[in-house]
């Protein structure tokens, strides 16, 4: 069974994916970590040294590779993955379940402001401008995320609760 998690930065894709894979005893793949291993560089360094277009091209290729080569896995994507190239079509075609982790802007702002450094798209944005940036960005990206097979309301739920809710979707 192939399950793909999508959603905005800091929606919990990596954390929930890890927990789910452990509980379901299947392989966990985080697309950003996969790219970092393949490129031998952090996502931050790839953005800084080669630019976003290069990152999006690698991201799309690595997504296709993971979807092709892995039968049973939980795949946590990056926040931008479904929004470029034909990535969301690929996800819908090649996975059994795709799940959009939905959170209110206020929670995303809180989480991102604590972890801006490792996220190159927001690292340069000041605290005052962050809510407007995230609001606009999510408005642009939401149409891609909502194509996922399921939407999971993650507001004020801990990881264990979310893992149980995902498991009940996987039939
Ligand atoms: N359900 C949750 N409740 C509270 N904090 C969470 C939850 N899920 C994730 N987090 C926290 O939010 C931050 C971003 O999580 P992460 O898994 O890196 O998100 P993503 O991979 O979507 O960017 C981390 O600090 C993580 O511990
Ligand atoms: O939203 C985005 O475009 C990005 C999200 C990041 O992943 P997370 O969503 O896990 O932070 C990472 O892929 C890169 O920094 C770009
Ligand atoms: Mg992540």
Structure overview:
Mg(2+) binds at residue 14. Its cofactor is Mg(2+). Monomer. It catalyses: shikimate + ATP = 3-phosphoshikimate + ADP + H(+). It comes from Flagellimonas ochracea. With 171 residues, the chain is of the alpha/beta class. The protein has one domain (2-163): 3-Layer(aba) Sandwich (Rossmann fold), CATH 3.40.50.300. The protein is 54% helix and 13% strand. It contains eight helices and five strands. It has helices at 13-24, 31-39, 43-50, 52-69, 87-94, 105-114, 130-145, 159-169; strands spanning 2-6, 27-30, 73-76, 97-102, 150-153. Strands 2-3-1-4-5 form a five-stranded parallel beta sheet. The N and C termini lie close together (10 Å). The mean pLDDT is 97. Bound molecules: adenosine-5'-diphosphate, shikimate-3-phosphate and magnesium ion.
